[in-house]
């Protein structure tokens, strides 16, 4: 257990940040699932809207440092590719 005041403060802050980061990652995962579900159902408009939400959630997570920027970019790219197949193929 920490004895120094700054260490105690850091522990509290880390717990808060962990909760915020987990909530943000859960939002990203949910948005991705909605997009994939819309693609699987063949819902073009729903997939478009869900992709926009997923892209926003991923950009927010990357911008805040919750996930690496390249990881977020890769996820957006793969989702966009899946949605694009609905309209092309």
3D structure, described in words:
With 89 residues, the protein is an all-alpha fold. The chain has a single domain (5-88), classed as Ribosomal protein S20 (Methane Monooxygenase Hydroxylase, Chain G, domain 1, Up-down Bundle), CATH 1.20.58. It is built from three helices and no strands. The longest helix has 37 residues, at 5-41. The radius of gyration is 17 Å and the shape is elongated.
List the helices and strands and how they pair.
Layout: H1 5-41, H2 44-63, H3 69-88
Helix pairs in contact: 1-2, 1-3, 2-3
CATH class: Mainly Alpha
CATH topology: Methane Monooxygenase Hydroxylase, Chain G, domain 1
CATH superfamily: Ribosomal protein S20
- Distance N to C terminus: 59 Å
Provide a short characterization of the protein structure.
Helix content is 87%, strand content 0%. It is mainly alpha-helical and 89 residues long. The longest helix has 37 residues, at 5-41.
State the main characteristics:
single chain; 89 residues; mainly alpha; Methane Monooxygenase Hydroxylase, Chain G, domain 1; 3 helices; elongated
